[in-house]
Write a structure and sequence with these properties.
The complex is a heterodimer of chains A (about 120) and B (about 350). Chain A is α/β, with parallel strands linked by helices. Chain A has a single domain (about 5-120), classed as Response regulator (Rossmann fold). Chain A is built from 5 helices and 5 strands. Chain A has helices spanning about 15-25, 40-50, 65-70, 85-95, 110-120; strands spanning about 5-10, 30-35, 55, 80-85, 100-105. In chain A, strand 4 (about 80-85), helix 4 and strand 5 (about 100-105) form a beta-alpha-beta unit. In chain B, about 35% of the residues lie in helices and about 25% in strands. Chain B is built from 11 helices and 14 strands. Chain B folds into 2 domains: about 10-140, Rossmann fold; about 165-350, Rossmann fold, CATH 3.40.50. The chains are: A alpha/beta (about 120), B alpha/beta (about 350).
């Protein structure tokens, strides 16, 4: 089965970072990559349509990544994107149901591998 | 650092008796400063740095025997000093600029350019600058950097218009870090880089020339009418107002005389970053390096609001932590990184 139709939601307050991730995924053939600029926007988008996978920045204003994970429990597949040295946050995210993580700065193939693994 | 008094203890190093006298008189007009000694050459400076344990040393470059850069290296390698912050006093010439840059790499915190003329009667003109730099230096953490080899390479003039821009705001202690970042980027780096480094106008040209020699990128001091191109580094001017104008992906630099009376440090990082944010939107990486004060905070706020990516130098690695701290406290950063990690991050994000 092809997973390239999977609906992927990128949640990051930086449009720059969303573009970087989106380009990586689209180059890999993923066609349905959607974006949200903060936790609140993410929750609204999820209400409208449940994504197959979320890539979630943990540090955001308004509603942080951890709060989003807590709220969504374990019903969603969430990959956490965090910077080096945020081990505590990553642990917390995993406890609340995150299924994978990507540490910045990342190589393109690290992102692709993690996404493939979860969508497989 | 333990001081024997609350005053800033300064050692003056200069081979000219007259210059030493002028500097001493000037420094003593500030009641927070105490001149604890004077040295006439590099060797004497090394001995007195150990004996008198000053907080700050003003160091002339051209002296008989050990020159200023070598004296700095010996003093900073000596475990029996008080880890003094050293301010290089260099001549107001191209050569002097190069010496000042080398001094920063080996660990000088800052530099002051002596007005022209060996008997510097003009020194009163830069009195405020000297006093301010002594105060800043007294609060600085000493950092040393390794020597960079120059790139001997024919460069291709960049032709592609920039889509992405990396903008770097930097102040005291910053030039060696800017050099390290730029020397690590390849000649096919697909973004334009704009550098706003606090320094005197004369120096911005010299700094750009030096960066052009040291890096694989095409570096120039901004000129009115320059277009932002991928693979090009633009060094912002200090004394003129910097703005970007244009449309359809092409952005041209406009430099205008300043009218306002605002007396902040130059170039104004907020102004440069604000222009980049307004013109390049989310396709911007904004970086704030070491420095005193909070120039850059407002500019970074605009970058952040436009969706750009914001990096603060890890304050613990900064000579002066306040500039990066200001944007961290304001909740504006995506990442807090050491200089070497800033390099990795830029390379991975801009492809």
């Amino acid at each position: 089965m092809s997973n390239k139709d999977a609906h992927i939601l990128l949640v990051d307050d930086s449009a720059f970072m969303r573009n970087v991730l989106k380009n990586i995924l689209e180059k890999e053939g993923y066609k349905n990559v959607d974006e949200a600029g903060n936790g609140k926007e993410a929750l609204e988008k999820i209400k409208a349509k449940k994504p197959d996978l979320m890539l979630l920045d943990v540090i955001m204003p308004e509603m942080g990544g951890i709060d989003v994970i807590k709220k969504l429990g374990k019903e969603h597949k969430i990959i956490v994107v965090s910077a080096v040295g945020q081990d505590k946050v990553v642990e917390e995210a995993k406890e609340h149901g995150a299924v994978g993580y990507i540490i910045k700065p990342f190589d393109n193939n690290q992102v692709v591998e993690e996404v493939k693994k979860i969508l497989a | 650092m333990i001081s024997r008094s609350d005053k800033i203890r300064v050692l003056i190093v200069d081979d000219s008796f007259f210059m030493k006298k002028l500097l001493k008189e000037l420094l003593l007009t500030d009641e927070m400063i105490e001149v604890v000694g004077q040295a006439k050459d590099g060797e004497e400076a090394v001995v007195k740095a150990r004996e008198l344990k000053p907080d700050v040393i003003t160091m002339d470059y051209n002296m008989p025997g050990l020159n200023g850069v070598h004296a700095i290296q010996e003093i900073l390698a000596d475990p029996n000093t008080n880890e003094p912050s050293i301010i290089m006093i260099s001549a107001y010439t191209g050569e002097g600029s190069e010496e000042a840059m080398e001094a920063l790499r080996v660990g000088a915190v800052d530099f002051i350019q002596k007005p022209s003329g060996e008997l510097s009667l003009d020194i009163d003109k830069i009195k405020d600058e000297i006093l301010e730099k002594v105060h800043i230096a007294s609060r600085a953490r000493v950092r040393t950097y390794t020597h960079i080899k120059r790139v001997k390479k024919k460069k291709k003039r960049p032709r592609t218009l920039a889509v992405k821009v990396v903008v770097i705001g930097s102040s005291t202690g910053g030039p060696p870090i800017v050099e390290d970042i730029l020397t690590s980027l390849p000649d096919n780096f697909p973004a334009a880089v704009v550098v706003a480094q606090h320094m005197p106008e004369f120096f911005t040209n010299k700094f750009a020339e030096r960066l052009d020699r040291l890096t694989a990128l095409w570096v120039k001091r901004a000129q009115d009418g320059d277009t932002l191109k991928a693979g090009q580094v633009i060094v912002a001017p200090a004394d003129t107002h910097f703005s970007l104008e244009g449309s359809n992906g092409e952005r041209t630099i406009h430099l205008r005389e300043r009218h306002e009376t605002h007396r902040g440090p130059r170039p104004n990082i907020d102004e440069v970053m604000g222009e980049v944010a307004e013109n390049y939107g989310s396709e911007v990486i904004g970086i704030v390096l070491t420095g005193m004060g909070d120039d850059g905070r407002k500019g970074i706020e605009l970058i952040k609001r436009a969706g750009g990516y914001v990096i603060a130098q890890d304050p613990q690695t900064a000579s002066i932590a306040s500039m990066p701290e200001a944007i961290i406290k304001a909740n504006l950063v995506n990442e807090i990184l050491r200089p070497e990690d800033i390099i990795t991050c830029i390379k991975k994000l801009v492809t």
